[in-house]
Every structure is written in structure tokens, then in C-alpha cells.
Amino acid sequence: MAPTTQFELAQPPNDAVSSLVFAPDAPSRLLASSWDKNLYLYDTLTTSESGDAEDGSGVSHGTLLRTYEHRAPILDVCFGADDNEAFTAGMDWEVRRVDLESGEQTTVSKHTAPVRRVVYSKAHSLLISASWDSTLHIHNPTNPSLTPLTIPLPGKPHAMAASPSKVIVAMTSRLVHIYDLGTLAGALESQSGEAPAPWQQRESSLKFLTRAVAAMPSDGGYATSSIEGRVAVEWFDASAESQARKYAFKCHRQTDNAAAAGVTDVVYPVNALAFHPVHGNTFASAGGDATVALWDAEAKRRMKVYQKFADSIAAVAFSTDGRFLAVAVCPGFETGMEDYSGEGRTKIVIRELGENEARGKGAK
Amino acid sequence: MGKKKRGHPDVEEILARPWCYYCERDFEDLKLLISHQKAKHFKCDRCGRRLNTAGGLSVHMNQVHKESLSHVENALPNRQGLDVEIFGMEGIPEDVVQQHNQRIIQNFYQAQADRYAATGNPPPGQGGKNPPKKLKIENPDDIKKRLAEHRARMAAHKAAGGAPTHTPPVGAPDGQSPAQSASPGTFNSPFPPPGGQYAGFPPQGAPGFSPPPQYPQGGFNYPPSNLPSRPGSNLPAPSGLPPRPGQPGFPGYSPNASTVDELVASASGQQGDHIDQMIRDLERGEAPARTGESAALASAEEPAPEKKSKKDKDKNVRMVYDDELSPEERMALMPRYAFVPQAQAA
């Protein structure tokens, strides 16, 4: 509605979005992976830069630069070493490298079940994929001669995030394993084939299935969210005082007074989390209640709740410079599973953040 | 004696508080409200400037940032419009004010009722709902009245020459105690005004009391006349009229008591046992009533917090999704999205 601060991308994906990611360098380059088997590459700013004062409703924002068709729905996407390299996690059990320039796709790794998440660590040149076959595959895309490392997991992974030095894998049964990227890189380098033990093993602070994980850019800790409208913030440091700082809070809930049985708390899953790359204490949470909220992890405060979107939020991402927030809106696939279709109702909304919009006020 | 307000302002005070049209929050004073509105609803997203009104913000956005404001930030879903010009408490549509007041009043009485239910305290000024206290206070009078009545009946009975009556003396307190426990708040109601008792007439409308046929005679037999016939009188006084200090069983009554007291005293002289019994009954009847009541109160109180905590616990939480299988996995099971590796191999 608000013309320049928030706009919908033209030519949205045809079905639900599974993941959004901004390019590491260009702040307007956005990848969206979709259940419609396509990977979408957008330039979010093309029209808003040209059309300055005239903000007619007829102007479409953003340009769909290219789509990359896959064999199966894409469950996750991440950028590789540069803005032209992407990795996708497919329902077809494969991890693929996509050259965004040429459109060339190469299979990097094959799991024995759909691949749920992929992360890439630029600092360590590591590609980590987590699959429902309960394994992690570790690759070094820059050195394909190395035999990929396979790490068995005690549960099905559902969420994964990388901080500068760690990778957090959240699995079923509330299991959370944290691996040290340096150790993983070393194990891959040594080619011993032995899976390194996790740096830390934790139990999730949340009682329900973990939905999303996001790592603090400061490398201090991470946030997890569950299907039961709750977000937990934890720190890597295992010392007692650091662990005492961890907390969890309820969010993405709605009280429904209309129900005859009195007040009903409708609890939505928190589908996505994203830390702000510049204001490292700020993170966004997105829920099935069609809202996105900004939180200050340090001050333990909510900073902002955005206007309700039309449908459930499947994914959020901050651009590298922190100026934009991309929000993937599509009907929630928690309900009405049988004939689900996100067609026509899937949108990607880009919000340009105000200068101080995402800056925390600091702990009080 | 002004009662101390224990942090629960009355409804007028709450209604008088300024409140924000956009988010229904209320504030201590108008200044706070206005600064709240400027900070929460009329603040420019882009430069942080705080405007006075939504219209002002709209103009600011237009002129400074070349943007247009579509809605008021942080407002309730139905209050985001820019069509109403709000500044502090000014500009709020009348129907919204009515709605707000109604909501406040409703919440207030709900909260009050909850508080009373939770604490077991009666609402101020309605002490009548607290029977044990009142009973205690009125006890001496009641005893006196009842004694007088009892005595009068006894007199009537005696005057009738011991003819069998429907109301044996012991029956009087017995017959009345149920009435007492049944409606402790209206303890006095079954009794006629004291004047009726002076005459020695039994209460005409007393429940559970059927006037015996010999009442006319009983009426003529005014206490003094039947005094001589008291066989058990162990005091030298010629009549029951002079006060008898030191009468056992009535230490609390002053010697210069009123006629009723004297009657009571004299009656007690011959029927000390009955009266003692009656007092004991009364005390016993009252004590159990009180303990029973407090027990009832306690039992009413106990479930209350329990109910509350239960309410908190299952506050009818409805989870939109509750499964160990992730939504994605369920999606993956659908033929539309499912991937069959055989197909790929073929």
C-alpha cells in the first residue's frame, strides 16, 4: 500500500515460497525458491529507482530477471561465493549449484531423501546441506576433488543457519547440534572420512518442533522458533552466565474472543527468522499469523510489528546492507493440506526500512 | 471516615482518564497521551519526526519524503484510517467514545466482580453480605428480645395452667433457630417490634408458631401477676421488677437494665436452665454457622484460584499446527509436490 516503503514484486512465484535470500553484495538481488519447482531471481529496485516522484499504482516494482527450473520443488536456496552462484536444496534429494549468469545447473550432492536446507559459509568455503535422510553433507565447492563429508544426525533436520564460525542444525525431538565450521573444514580437508563430533549438543529451549533458526551476525548466538508461537534466543558461550542470558518468549499469537468457550489463544507457527546484518541485535520473526515483527535480542524488546499481510509468512530475509526486508507471503500450508495451492496468492513484499527502523534502542 | 482506596480506582476515575483513539491505551494525563500519540502513531518512519496529527504526518510525508501515508502506525486494525483528525482526546467520533466507555465500564465491573470473587470480600458498603460480623454485633439485643418473647410465652403457658400447648417452652428456641440460620442477614425480621413484647403478647406472625387458644388469657396474665406462681424462684424479691444484680448466667447485663432486661432476668431466675440452654444453643448454632460459612467461603476460595490457574493453563490455546512432522514434510507427501526417484531413473 505505502508506495515506496513497501511494495510487492511483480511476477511473483506461482506457488508457495520456501526461502528467500539476498545476494551477498548487491542489495537488490533477491533469490526466491518455490514449491513450483522454480528458482526466481529478482532485481528488487529497478522500477522504484527510475520512477521517482510519480508513484502511480500502475508502476510495477522489481523485475524478474530469470527463473531456473528444477525437477522438483525447491526447499531452500543460498548464495555461494558471489552474486552469481547459488545452491538449491531440492525435493529430488539433490543439492544443486546454479550459475545465475548462464543458468547452468550442476548436481553437487545427492542425499537419500529430500534436502531441507543448504547454507554456504564464504569464510570457510563450505557448503552444508541438511536432508531428511538425517545427514549433513559437507562440500567445498571451490575444491571439488575433496570427497564430501557425511555427518549422520540423530534426527531429521528442519532448520539450519550459519554464523561466521558455527553452523546450527535444529532437528526433530528438539535436538540442536552446533558444529564449528573450522572443524568441519579441517575434517573435510584431512579426507579422513571421519565425521567430526558436534561442537555443542543442546536441547531446544522450545518444547515444540523447531521451525527456524537464525544466527547472530556477531557470532554471539542464535535464535530458534517453533511451531508453537515461540522464539528462543540463546548464546553459544557455554558458560553459566551466558547460558543464564538465554530466554524465550511467546509471539505470533492472536486472542480470539469470539469463541464461545471464552478467550482462545490462537497460536501460529513462527515460520522464519532473520537477523539484521547491520544492527546485529535486531531480528525479524515471521509467523503463520501473517505478521512480521522486529525484535531486539539484547534488550528483549519488540521493536515493531508490521501491518498484517494477506496470508501466512513463509520466509523473511534482510538485504546485506540491511536496508530492505523481503517477506514471502503465501497461504500457510499448515491448514488445508489436501489441495494446497499457493497460486495467485503468493507474493513477495519488499519493505524499505527507515534509517532507524531496525536499530535497537539498546538495553535499558 | 473515608475508606482507603487500595489501588482500585472507581469507575469514574477510570472513565476520566485520557485514552488514545488509535490503540485504546489510557494515560495518566493528556500530556502523556499526546506524547504517546506523537511517538507511536504520528512519527515519521523515515526521519523520525514526531508530528501532532495523522494529517500532519501525511502532509510531512508528502512534502518531505514524497511519499503518501496510507495508514496510522501501531493502530488497532479498525482505527488505522486517516479520515479522522485526532489530537489527544479531540476528534474522536462520538460512537467510538461510547464504545470505549462501555468497554471500560464493562471491564471495570468485571474486574471488580473478579476481585470480590477472588478475595471473598464484599463490595464496600454492602457489609450486609457478611453475616458473621453482624450476628455478633446484634447478639445481645437479639438474645434479649428472644428471651423476652420466650418469657412471655412461658408466662402465657403458665397462666393457662399448664395446659398442653403446641409450643412447649423449649420448642421456642428450637423452632426459631432454623429461621435464624436460614436468613442470618435478616435476623430481626421474624420478631415483632419490642413494644409487642412488653405486652407479653406472643408475636402474631412468628413463623412456625401457631397461636394457642389460651392466648387471650395469656395476654391478661401480665408478667407481674404470674410471678408468684413461679415455684422455682429462689430470690427473696417480691416481684420480678427490681433489678437483681449478680444474677447468675447474666453477668453482662447492667443492673439498671430496661424492663426487657428485668423480664429477661426474672425469667432467667426460674428457667435458668432453659435460658442457659438457649444461649448455648444460640452460641453453638451461631458458631457452627460461622465456621460453616467460613468453610464455605474457604471452599469457594479454593476452587477459585484453581479455576483461575486452570484457565491460565488451558486458556483454550489452539495451535494452528501441532505435529512432529514439519509442514514441509506434509507438503512433500502430496502427490503434487512429491518426488519419485524411480521416475527420474526411468
**Which term fits the overall shape of chain B?**
elongated
The total count of helices of chain B amounts to 13
Helix residue percentage of chain A: under 10%
Order of helices and strands of chain B: HHHHHHHHHHHEHH
- By secondary-structure content and strand pairing, the structural class of chain A works out as mainly beta
Q: How many distinct beta strands of chain B?
A: 1
Helix tally of chain A equals 3
Q: Which structural class best describes the helix and strand composition of chain B? A: mainly alpha
Most extensive contact: A-B, 58 and 37 residues
Helix content of chain B: 40-55%
- What gyration radius of chain B follows from the Cα positions, in whole Å? 38 Å
How far is it from the N-terminal to the C-terminal residue of chain A, by CA?
Answer: 34 Å
Oligomeric state = heterodimer
Strand residue percentage of chain A: over 45%
Biggest beta sheet attributes of chain A: 4 strands, antiparallel
For the record, give the distance between the C-alpha atoms at the N and C termini of chain B, rounded to a whole number: 94 Å
Poorly predicted runs of chain A are: 48-57
Spans of chain B of 5+ residues with little confidence (pLDDT < 50)?
Answer: 127-135, 163-240, 245-259, 262-270, 287-314
Would you kindly provide a written description of the structure presented here, covering whatever features stand out?
Chain B: Residues 177-189, 223-232 have a biased composition (Polar residues). Chain B: Residues 199-208, 293-302 have a biased composition (Low complexity). Chain B: It is found in: Nucleus. The complex is a heterodimer of chains A (364) and B (346). Chain A is mainly beta and 364 residues long. Chain A has helices at 46-50, 181-190, 240-244; strands spanning 6-8, 17-22, 29-34, 38-43, 63-69, 74-79, 85-90, 94-99, 105-110, 115-121, 126-131, 135-139, 149-152, 157-162, 166-171, 175-180, 200-203, 210-215, 221-226, 230-235, 247-250, 253-256, 264-267, 270-275, 282-287, 292-296, 301-305, 313-318, 324-329, 347-352. The longest helix of chain A has 10 residues, at 181-190. Chain B starts with 10 loop residues before the first helix and ends with a helix. Chain B has 346 residues and is mostly helical. The model of chain B is unreliable at 127-135, 163-240, 245-259, 262-270 and 287-314 (pLDDT under 50). Chain B is elongated and about 110 Å long. The interface between A and B is large, with 58 and 37 residues. Strand 23 (264-267) of chain A pairs parallel with strand 1 (317-319) of chain B.
